Amino acid sequence: MGATRLVILFWALSAVDVALAGARPSEVAVGALFTYDSSIGRAAQLAIELAVDDVNAEGTVLSGTKLNMVTQDSKCSGFLGTIQAFQLMEKNVVAVIGPQSSGIGHVISHVVNELHVPLLSFAATDPTLSASEYPYFLRTTISDYFQMNAVASIVDYYQWKRVTAIFVDDDYGRGGVLALGDALAAKRAKISYKAAIPPNSNLDVINDVLFRANMMESRVMVVHANPDTGMRIFSVANKLQMMTSGYVWIVTDWLAAVLGSSASRDIKDMSDIQGLIVLRQHTPESDAKNKFISKWNSLARSRNINSGLNSYGFYAYDTVWTVACAIDQFLNSGQQINFSTDPTLYDSNGSTMHLSTLKLFDGGEQMLRQLLLTNFTGVTGPVQYDSDRNLVRPAYDILNIGGSGSRFIGYWSNHSGLSVAAPEILYQKQPNTSTSPQQLYNVVWPGGSTTTPRGWVFPNNGQPLRVGVPIKSSFKELVSGKGPDNVRGYCIDIFNAAAKLLPYPVTYQFVTIGDGTRNPIYIDIIRRVAANSLDAAVGDFAIVRNGTQLAEYTQPYIESGLVIVAPVKKATRSAWAFLKPFTLEMWCVTGALFILVGIVVWLLEHRINEEFRGPPRRQITTIFWFSFSTMFYSHRQNIVSALGRFVLIIWLFVVLIITSSYTASLTSILTVQQLETGITGLNSLISSSLPIGYQAGKFTKRYLTQNLNIPMSRLVPLNTAQEYADALNRGPKHGGVAAIVDEKPYIDIFLSNYCNFRIVGQQFTREGWGFAFQRDSPLAEDMSTAILQLSESGQLERIHDEWFSRPSCASDDDSEVGETRLGLRSFSGLFLICALICLFALVVFFTRIYWQYKQYSNFEAAGEPSAPDADSVKRQQRLSSLGSFKELIQFVDKKEEEVRRKMKRRPSDKDNQAAGSSYATSVDSA
């Protein structure tokens, strides 16, 4: 019993120790720092009070512990906000809610990092407030990183490429614009101009900033500012006529907060913001949300507060619950709320700052960990953090301001992009932003227009467009000029005609590049466009890969491609031209095959066909006559044997091919010009080692060396059409070139003046010529549309005909030039088949002859009279005689019919002899 009492006493003492160690405090202090008198602060103040009351009334959270909220007014001042933050820390708070300003958030984040006090902001949206730099900062609203992605999605949806960012030049504005630039770059768009407005600027400063922004080409304005400065921006913009048709204004969520907080909206202010697109944090509809709105409105009426509730009030309410749940989990885990002195903080002699009163929260790291594990559903929807410490499921409502209020046009979420379906519905499906159709309802734009603005106009800064033009020493039909005011040519006329079709006036000035003696390097001109030394490049610019990486090209205004031109010579007229279609080897083999087929057919027909018999002289004549008469299908001999007919059918097919090829080749020789260098196309050009000419400055050199792997040593740069002709005429043996590779429009001009050259082979690249502009320049798209209009109206063809006449000495069948003689290799397969058929027929024929010969020999031997002793000798001599070659030839020469007749008669003679011998024997016996 004594031992049992001791054990019970030990358990009781342990339980008391645990209870004392885990005793929950009667209350816990949490700080709140925001600006009371502001659109966000007024909504947040009541929301925080309601949240504290609800937490303290809730029995399941902080049971037995009261949540005490200590608030401080930052008064929209970074300095005062910092002072207020220090005052909150003196009161041993375990967390701080706020601030609503990103600028103050940057400052006091350093303080909470030092004191290990978590800082939860429901309104500081600057994405540069990162966890890596500020580990104790936790954003309880949506980061501007997501908001700027929503803006970029809207810009991409309407296919705008350049925007003007108007922002307040502080941490909040700069951080947001930085995120906007990254988001636009992912959509192949960019910020073309940044209009930074200093904080607390007056109307004159704002007027100057907007006036400069209005001089730029972009008409898509993205406004990221605070409410006070933002409303002044629209007032000034309205006076500058920037709220009229053709402009686009996209405003971040600050304006939605202003409109939501304004219980009685000023009609004058609403007239300044008609047609704007506004973003607002999306909070899904729920019973908890509706209940909170009702309680907030009741409390506001009881205190005669005229402002309304905005989305930041919802996030402030959920922030208090987030802190309460984290404290509850902190205490439930057995942690104690203790503060200790920070040795790095002390008051120097004479200092009145009382830094020593600031305490280090010992459980700050554990409290931060519990905050990051938050997972509940609040009035803003799911409250949970991802690995980057951002709230899950960020989404925005997209509104269109019109009349005295706003109109809903769609949603944005990082799950599905733009849509007209609520994000909470789409979150139930798989993310598919890349392939799902992005959709928004129709928008009424500034000026009351329902037509989507182009978003860009020619800049009204008084500077003409700088248009670079290459000046060369030849091909002046394309581009030529002696100065900026004297530029003409086919390309220039097309550019001028297209510029007249633009829906806005464009002033431009040509900048000539090149001295007219040597060709400029075209890719260097494109690089000048990319480097902003030129605004555009106009001329014979091929749209090639390395150029499109630097600049934006228009729709091609003429088709182009690389071709090969080589020298040709007239076909010589001689009495022996009919022998040229075939080579000597071809003639010899063809003649031999004719004789071979004649001999084969004679052998197959000689024993059974009277037309192939007779005196030797006649038979030889028949062989040659039959062979060569088959060339004209005029042979008169009838073929009787099956093997002969089989051989003749194959041979007549071979004759058909040979005669057809001969006719075609002879026609080509007598009518078509012949190549001098043997280059007939791209393959022969690559495989040869002959020098090749190309136009200096163009992309041809790079293509030949990089794409076709032709050594640089074979390439010869040429500048003018005269140099083309001289190099081709000299040829490879005299310091010239074997062929020239250039784009077809140049070659067409060249061949119209030089008739002893022709295009060989086929065009082996496909590209076109276009005008080059700076990357993502809307002018390139508008010029492309104008070029298409020129093409559809026929004006593009008329301009072409004005500058290019049909080549006077170039035939339409330029591709027909080349080698026309036919060699043995072209018919080797056909000849081999014919020879094998003849061999097969001969093998069958001689096999049959041999079999007949053996049968015939046996019958001959059996038919000889027998004699004692001498009979066997005579029989052997007879067999030897029949087996001789002469006898074999004589047997082959015999008619088939005669051989068969003799073989049938021999058996009857043998029977008669046997009968006679039997009768003689019987007589003798008698």
Automatic annotation (TrEMBL):
<dbReference type="InterPro" id="IPR001320">
    <property type="entry name" value="Iontro_rcpt_C"/>
</dbReference>
<protein>
    <recommendedName>
        <fullName>Glutamate receptor</fullName>
    </recommendedName>
</protein>
<dbReference type="GO" id="GO:0007165">
    <property type="term" value="P:signal transduction"/>
</dbReference>
<feature type="transmembrane region" description="Helical">
    <location>
        <begin position="584"/>
        <end position="604"/>
    </location>
</feature>
<keyword id="KW-0407">Ion channel</keyword>
<feature type="compositionally biased region" description="Basic and acidic residues">
    <location>
        <begin position="896"/>
        <end position="912"/>
    </location>
</feature>
<dbReference type="InterPro" id="IPR028082">
    <property type="entry name" value="Peripla_BP_I"/>
</dbReference>
<feature type="transmembrane region" description="Helical">
    <location>
        <begin position="639"/>
        <end position="658"/>
    </location>
</feature>
<dbReference type="GO" id="GO:0034220">
    <property type="term" value="P:monoatomic ion transmembrane transport"/>
</dbReference>
<comment type="similarity">
    <text>Belongs to the glutamate-gated ion channel (TC 1.A.10.1) family.</text>
</comment>
<keyword id="KW-0325">Glycoprotein</keyword>
<dbReference type="GO" id="GO:0016020">
    <property type="term" value="C:membrane"/>
</dbReference>
<dbReference type="InterPro" id="IPR017103">
    <property type="entry name" value="Iontropic_Glu_rcpt_pln"/>
</dbReference>
<dbReference type="InterPro" id="IPR000337">
    <property type="entry name" value="GPCR_3"/>
</dbReference>
<feature type="domain" description="Ionotropic glutamate receptor C-terminal">
    <location>
        <begin position="464"/>
        <end position="806"/>
    </location>
</feature>
<dbReference type="GO" id="GO:0009611">
    <property type="term" value="P:response to wounding"/>
</dbReference>
<keyword id="KW-1071">Ligand-gated ion channel</keyword>
<feature type="disulfide bond">
    <location>
        <begin position="755"/>
        <end position="809"/>
    </location>
</feature>
<comment type="function">
    <text>Glutamate-gated receptor that probably acts as non-selective cation channel.</text>
</comment>
<dbReference type="Pfam" id="PF01094">
    <property type="entry name" value="ANF_receptor"/>
</dbReference>
<keyword id="KW-1015">Disulfide bond</keyword>
<dbReference type="InterPro" id="IPR015683">
    <property type="entry name" value="Ionotropic_Glu_rcpt"/>
</dbReference>
<keyword id="KW-0813">Transport</keyword>
<keyword id="KW-0732">Signal</keyword>
<dbReference type="GO" id="GO:1901701">
    <property type="term" value="P:cellular response to oxygen-containing compound"/>
</dbReference>
<keyword id="KW-0472">Membrane</keyword>
<dbReference type="InterPro" id="IPR044440">
    <property type="entry name" value="GABAb_receptor_plant_PBP1"/>
</dbReference>
<keyword id="KW-0406">Ion transport</keyword>
<dbReference type="InterPro" id="IPR001828">
    <property type="entry name" value="ANF_lig-bd_rcpt"/>
</dbReference>
<feature type="compositionally biased region" description="Polar residues">
    <location>
        <begin position="914"/>
        <end position="926"/>
    </location>
</feature>
<dbReference type="Pfam" id="PF00060">
    <property type="entry name" value="Lig_chan"/>
</dbReference>
<keyword id="KW-0675">Receptor</keyword>
<keyword id="KW-1133">Transmembrane helix</keyword>
<keyword id="KW-0812">Transmembrane</keyword>
<feature type="signal peptide">
    <location>
        <begin position="1"/>
        <end position="21"/>
    </location>
</feature>
<feature type="region of interest" description="Disordered">
    <location>
        <begin position="896"/>
        <end position="926"/>
    </location>
</feature>
<feature type="transmembrane region" description="Helical">
    <location>
        <begin position="830"/>
        <end position="851"/>
    </location>
</feature>
